[in-house]
Amino acid sequence: MEILTDRLRLRKWTNRDKPAFAAIQADPRVMEYFPATLTRKESDAVVERFKKHHKEHGFGYFAAERRTDKQLLGFIGLSRQEYPAFFTPCVDIGWMLHPDVWGQGLAAEGARACLEHAFGALGLDAVRAVTVHRNMPSIRVMHQLGMAYEGAFIHPDFADRHDQQPCLVYVRRAPAEGQP
To answer: Where does this protein have coiled-coil stretches (predicted)?
Structure first.
């Protein structure tokens, strides 16, 4: 299973992706809006969780690679979320990309393709996105994707990071039949 866009190949994870992804997750710029930077061992465990999610659900956070040189850029994709919140359980769309490609529209490009997959092949009626209230770049991507603000909540994964609370949730509902 893979999704192709003009510039990206979204595909399943392999063990070869682990070193490059660990470097991305060790970068404090990338992890500014996440609970903490990750060690190599912690990052490898994340890749294993992504692989398990794909196997169990048939979708997940994809490894995002640039089509021209096959360089791993991070992840873009869909994931089931079941932590306690007013909108869960749900399917969430998320992204994390290397700082060298920020501002190039890749998150929106890949996420648009994932939304098409979610509403088409997967038949989902809604997809949500969550971010901390200060993450303006991701909020801009959510707006570009046509997502609407749904509310704020206290994310259990950020319990000890008061600077990251509240988190915001946005939603995009499946288009009505015949609508783009």
So the answer is: none
